[in-house]
Amino acid sequence: MTSPHSTSQRLPIASVLVAIAAGELFHLIMSSVLEVVGDVVPSWLEQLLRILDGAVASGVFLLLVWLVVKLSDPVASPPQPKQFERWMRWGVLGYLAVVVFPSLAVEGIAAVLVHNVLAAMLLGIGVWSATVVLRVVRSYRTARTAVALRSLGWVLLAAVPIRWIEVTVAPGSLEVVYVFQGIVVCVLVTLLARRRRWLGSLSRGQRWSLGWWTSLVLVFSIVAAATLFDSSTVHSRALRQWLTGSELVVGYVCLALAMYSAIALVTIVGSGSSAARKTFEFDAITFFNRLVSEHADSQQLYDTAVTLAVALTESTGAMLLLHEGDRWEIAALAGLDYQRAAALEIQSVLGHSLSTDAIVVPWLFEDERFFRIARSVESYAQSLMLVPLREGSISYGAIVVVSTKPFAFEQGDIAALGAFAPAVTIALANQRLLRSAIERERLRRELMLGREIQKKLLPTAAPILNGWSVAGWSEPALEVGGDYFDYFQLGDGTACIVVADVSGKGISAAFYMAKLKGICLALAPLCRSVHDFIVRIHRALDGGVLESRVYITLAAVGITPSGRVHIVRAGHPPPVGVTSDGQVQVYSPQGIALGMVSTDRFVALTPVLEIEQTHLDTLLLFSDGYLEAGLPTTAELGLDGIRRMIQSHANNCSAEELLQRLKGDLSTMLASTTQHDDITMVIMKRTTNSS
Amino acid sequence: MTMQHEFYTHIQPVGDGTITIVELHGYLDAYTAPGFDDVLAQLFEGGQTRIVVDCAELDYISSAGLGVFMGHIEPFRSVGGDIVLCGLSPRITAIVEMLGFPHIFRICANREQAIAAFGQTPGTT
Prior knowledge:
The structure holds 2 protein chains of 2 kinds. Chain A is of the alpha+beta class. Chain A has 21 helices and 16 strands. In chain A, the strands form 3 sheets. Chain A has a 6-stranded antiparallel sheet with strand order 6-7-16-15-12-13. The longest helix of chain A has 45 residues, at 413-457. In chain B, 37% of the residues lie in helices and 30% in strands. In chain B, strands 1-2-3-4-5 form a 5-stranded mixed sheet. In chain B, helix 1 (33-45) packs parallel to helix 2. The longest helix of chain B has 16 residues, at 63-78. The interface between A and B is medium-sized, with 36 and 26 residues.
């Protein structure tokens, strides 16, 4: 294991180890010297040497404490069960060596040597035990860890002066204090070991092996503690001779390890096996995927997802949050009601990280983000875990599980929920796709319906009006369009053929087209001429009916009862006529589109044209879609193209036949491109000789 | 589905800075018209109300594109500004004339004439 500060720490730790070894050597020499010459030197000198030896031992003791604190500095990744098991195995070896250390009945120098070695071993096992407990509780710390650790430290260190007082003042009088200290140590360790969920998820083999080694450590550490508390044992004596009271400190450390081992053992034995959990995870994912493939409805999927999340994480409640636009919605709940789920304020507390990071909050009370609301949600949420549901850069939502117990989730638990999350994400992605497909289909149907309705607004019959047969056809570029044609009988008996084009295309144009039809229908019987008709239409549109950017171009041909032909061109492509002798004529009187200027100006700018040729035989009215047919991929048909086409087709055919011929040519033309604008054509053919 | 064509505008102030030239490039149709609409709306909001729209590089304009001019001309004129068109190709000229646009908009042959129409001598641009 490496710590970011390892290089800067190496030197002091090495120096400290050297200092400790030197101190021990000093003690060995000093105790050997006292053993050999203790009887011959004056008692004051012996006393002085003993005090010196004690001072050195105290120094070494403090260095050992420093070493323990240094070694137990928490590192980036907290201890995992595997590592803990390794520690336990080494601990068993160490304890075994210490506990079964042969209490040889040796005398003199040999006894000094044996005691020194035993003391060193006991100190070593003490350092090791303290380091293990400290490392674990400092890695899995809570807000109260620091206070509890400080208290534990003082309780342990206090054993030295208390023991010294007892030995020098009243031997055997303070046993009750030692018992009290022991109880305090056990209570503090229990408090420090609150986060033990990390020992929870183990495979069957791991459980057995870790449980085995931990129980051995438990037994040996209890034996070691008991041995050290019994002042008559060689172990106790060996440490006491090194430094009075140190035997109690090491004993309490062994007791602390025993306590922690006992708690760990209960956790290890009491937890479910990870194999069972893995099987359950697999079953849950399979079940959920089956539900998805059966096209279960959204809510059923959501409810199942949260129910499975609760079961997978052994939590007490879960919620599914869905990302809708920039909002988060609670889509499903298990073990929580809406009010409680909302009170957690997940979105406002976790904010942006909600969609990016898996989060574990071991205890809401100790989390600065949740501290404010911890009290109000205490009864149903003390710890929580969140796993985002995302695929690539798309965030679909998050699953949040809560537990009524603190420290119910550790980083390792994210894996369990994390394994399930992709199944939910895929289900959500599918749902979203399906929803948008349904929505597209619905819109398509609506538009097709709109298209059908719009088609019904156009005349289907090919009537004969005042001696002219008429045939019309219109095809929108999109589902609906803004082109319009119609035939009316005006109030004076004039037959009026209208082709109009609302600017723009699609639905907005279609609405104006329908409106225009309504206006035309209402006004036609009131009008006395085609010009009157168009002007009245303009007046009707003038009062803010059209948006400022919308205008309507219109061409109207009026056939009076007497057979005169009148043309009004309001910004529209000009009608094209063919005379009976095959001459093509474009009729382009001055005019401006509807909705561009006031009606008075419109009247001034849009005069009526009366056609003089009495031998006019054919008239074609069309929208600019026909003019521009061919765009954007090829050249547009243009007015010249239209002239050519009508000239080649106009002879000896009815209006309907001519229309079909022109449509045939058009479809040949459009085969190599897409229709980019609405196209409308109306053919008028004279059926009787002109008067 | 109709193909989508490229359209962009290039804006530059001329003269004493009170006239803005908006060059139109590409296809101005129902799909690209909203972008041009935004350009004119922003110029109006920025107080730039004397606009010369240079159509020399404009390949195509649909009724929706022409509608953008219609939608903006009144507000511009109501604050003493105007929108003057110039550089129209013969094809586009035919379209706007058919529609009656010259009755509403001033249409000039080129940029210099359009600037002059605002009563300024065309400066270098």
